[in-house]
Design goal:
Structural class: alpha/beta
Strand order of the largest sheet: 10-15-14-13-11-12
Helix content: 25-40%
Radius of gyration: 27 Å
Number of strands: 25
Largest sheet: 6 strands, mixed
Oligomer: single chain
Length: 765
């Protein structure tokens, strides 16, 4: 008689329990083990001599056979970095046909901002301030990934990032927990959908506090107060969980002195008991074995035992899993087998929900059709258009093509296909990437001459990126590059042009994981080159390609127009051209505060009022302690007027909701989007509260002359907070200031009074 777990008429819970009851302890531990598979993107020739490789490379070359043996022995439940459907099917066959229970593998991959179609980087998507657009992008990313045999993405990264030196600021949604929560939920909805055949599991990461690494140095420890954890760092995870996230990834680093991947308070008390997560937790790469490296665990057995008892369910590893010591840990009484059963139950539940037992293989005949879909590329362009932020515009944009005969496009990044895509893509096709110079040339047409000069070189990293070794498309400045000659050529080209579009920024491998920086200056001599081009008198438009704020003080003072293009993805060049020529009005808004330079980091808009608030902009003796551009900032080719800010009542009780309304008018003669933002400040209460906090936003399309009323609800979810004074969630009876406008400096204001009419309902934010 067939086992219950094979019966599709039974519930997922029934099928899981039946299968679990048949597994040996070794098979259980296998389900909790995930291997990198270094043969996943291609295979070595059968006659390749591994001994010809350097000793450090031989271990990696032999690693695929190690993983295949583990799969065939039922000692692996998941593999990652498998992107070829044929390889996925071959490995899946080992698991399904070669083991006694035929439990399918779940294949994971870093599908961060697209698979074959590359969308703008995550921080750029956050700059759309448009959850629907973000969801649409991740639906496409999931569809493409699933067509290649991938079931699970290690995204979204929902770490709050308030230090621009930290390289992984590019993967998140910036500094604000309210915006970050909306972006997190939108991504989960896009990836997971209803667990259908075109969906992948989402894995919000890195739980928790990874974005607060000391000094912005990746992998360093973090010290974060309970108040900040609950008010700032946990809310995006809560939003992702509420949106249905099936998995969560733990962080590498120590949080308040305890490694996150072995922290039972974090993984059980908070994640499960407080935030209500019921899926499974996977470690970041080698994070379980790292518990020994971090001098937290005494041995691999101790590391595995402490991680799983803390609440970590699956170990991601490269070679020798610490979790493979768990049978010994059970035998020694270090781990209760029920703890292992709970973890296995969670993993199997995800596999059944995805339908892997019924459909373990990928249909290789449809992969190319899905990956080549033109509609995906069109959406990539749209997202890039919606994400760009116009930082400054003294009437220099949009370009008037009827007044142009020649355009000089300056900068190595302007012509770099790989850098246009940004970091954290591993299965890209640079041949189909549209660079900025290509986009401008196509948009300008035959009547306008578009010439490109690469100009100033961009120095390579002092410490090479670990990702460059697996990416043959990485762009670098040649070692024999003549900076003086190339800068002179760029300046000469700009001198003869009607307008110079100067593209500056960082290469894609100068930001991301393991790519923190000690400075926010433009690398190399890009600033010097910009200064020389401005001195020619040719009108200049600056396009910035980066994932973090850079030092633009000189540019802000001397260049009439600055467009933050981020790393705009597969169709980024088309999007930038459309924005420059005015085919689309920019409407992206900054998801972080833009500091003047690195000495201002960290700088956030939602700081406490603190002592001497009237001198907040005078904290430094040598320069204003104010941002170059505020949080939420972004300009448009349209103009907007805010009027009639009102509340449906100016007095509410604790636990009640007030409706805030404002009339927004497009007072220009062109259609454009605006992003309406609502901020609050609590004047007094149990704890001090930030001077301003984002509590509502809406991206609003407005035709020329149109007026629209935008409304927001302000209730207990927006008004309560976690107080260190009471060690719990609270909503105060107080006075609340409300502002609505186009960024965090909005000045259209009103107030409401919150009275202690009744107790706040239970629960948390």
């Amino acid at each position: 008689m067939a086992s219950t777990y094979r019966d599709t008429t039974r519930t997922v819970a029934e099928r899981v329990e039946d299968l679990l009851s048949q597994l040996s302890i070794e098979e259980k531990v296998g389900q909790l083990t995930q291997y990198f598979y270094f043969g996943g993107m291609g295979e070595l020739p059968a006659d390749f001599d591994i001994t010809s490789l350097p000793p450090e490379a031989q271990e990696f070359a032999r690693q695929p056979k190690l993983v295949e043996a583990a799969v065939g022995a039922g000692a692996a439940g998941s593999a990652l970095f498998v992107t070829k459907p044929s390889v996925a099917n071959r490995l899946q066959k080992l698991a399904v046909d070669g083991t006694r229970h035929g439990i399918p593998l779940i294949f994971g991959f870093d599908v961060i901002h697209g698979f074959r179609t590359v969308f703008p980087v995550p921080i750029a998507q956050a700059a759309t301030w448009d959850p629907a657009t973000i969801t649409a992008a991740q639906i496409v990313a999931a569809r493409e990934a699933r067509s290649a045999g991938i079931h699970w993405t290690f995204a979204p990264m929902v770490d709050i990032a308030r230090d621009a030196r930290w390289g992984r600021i590019i993967e998140g949604a910036g500094e604000d927990p309210f915006l970050g929560s909306a972006v997190a939920a939108a991504q989960v909805r896009g990836f997971q959908g209803d667990f259908g055949p075109e969906n992948v599991l989402a894995s919000p990461k890195h739980f928790a506090g990874y974005g607060a690494a000391r000094g912005g140095r990746d992998y360093d420890d973090a010290e974060i107060s309970d108040s900040e954890l609950r008010n700032v760092y946990f809310p995006p995870f809560q939003a992702a969980i509420d949106a249905g996230a099936a998995t969560v990834m733990s962080a590498y680093m120590d949080l308040n002195g305890v490694p996150a991947s072995g922290n039972s308070w974090l993984l059980t008390d908070v994640l499960r008991d407080e935030l209500g997560f019921d899926g499974f937790v996977v470690s970041d790469a080698n994070a379980v074995r790292s518990l020994e490296t971090q001098h937290f665990a005494a041995s691999p057995l101790d590391a595995g035992a402490r991680a799983i008892t803390a609440g970590l369910d699956m170990e991601m590893c490269m070679f020798d899993p610490a979790f493979h010591t768990l049978p010994d840990a059970v035998a020694q009484g270090r781990v209760d087998e029920n703890v292992i059963d709970t973890a296995v139950r969670r993993v199997l539940t995800a596999k059944f929900r995805l339908g892997l037992f019924e459909n373990p293989y990928v249909d290789e005949s449809v992969t190319a059709t899905v990956l080549d879909a033109p509609v995906h590329r069109h959406l990539a362009r749209t997202v890039a258009e919606r994400s760009a932020v116009l930082l400054k515009n003294d009437s220099a944009l949009p370009l008037r093509e009827e007044a142009l005969r020649s355009i000089a496009v300056i900068g190595q990044l302007a012509g770099s296909k790989r850098d246009t895509l940004g970091p954290w893509v591993f299965d890209h096709d640079t041949a189909e990437t549209v660079t900025i110079v290509e986009g401008i040339r196509t948009r300008a047409g035959d009547d306008i001459t578009v010439d490109h000069a690469p100009g100033a070189g961009i120095p390579a990293r002092i410490f090479p990126s670990m990702f460059d070794r697996q990416d043959p498309t990485v762009a670098n400045t040649p070692v024999d590059y003549d900076d003086d000659a190339e800068i002179a050529r760029a300046v000469a080209l700009a001198t003869t042009a009607d307008v110079a579009v100067v593209v500056v920024g960082e290469r894609q491998n100068q930001i991301g994981e393991n790519a923190s920086t000690s400075t926010l200056e433009l690398p190399g001599r890009q600033l010097e080159q910009l200064q020389k081009i401005v001195q020619t008198g040719t009108p200049v438009v600056l396009v910035v390609m980066s994932g973090r704020p850079l030092d633009l003080r000189w540019a802000d003072e001397h260049v009439p127009a600055i467009l933050q293009a981020w790393y705009p993805g597969s169709r980024g060049g088309e999007a930038v051209a459309a924005l420059l020529f005015g085919d689309v009005s920019p409407a992206g808004r900054l998801p972080f505060t833009w500091p003047r330079h690195v000495g201002h980091v960290p700088m956030i808009y939602s700081h406490l009022r603190s002592f001497a608030p009237d001198a907040q902009g005078e904290r430094y003796w040598d320069e204003a302690s104010t941002p170059l551009y505020p949080f939420g900032h972004g300009m448009s080719y349209g103009t907007f007027r805010y009027e009639a800010l009102r509340v449906d009542r100016d007095h509410i009780g604790v636990g009640e909701t007030v409706v805030v309304s404002v009339d927004v008018t497009n007072s220009s003669d062109r259609d454009a989007d605006d992003v309406v933002q609502l901020y609050i400040h609590q004047r007094y209460g149990t704890s001090s509260r930030p001077v301003r906090e984002l509590k509502g936003f809406e991206r609003v399309p407005l035709t020329a002359g149109e007026t629209r009323t935008v409304t927001f609800d302000l209730g207990p979810a927006e008004l309560r907070y976690w107080s260190a004074a009471t060690r719990g969630w609270i909503q105060d009876a107080t006075t609340i200031d409300i502002w609505v406008g186009g960024d965090s400096t909005a000045d259209l204001a009103t107030t409401i009074t919150v009275a202690a009419d009744r107790a706040i309902p239970g629960g948390q934010a």
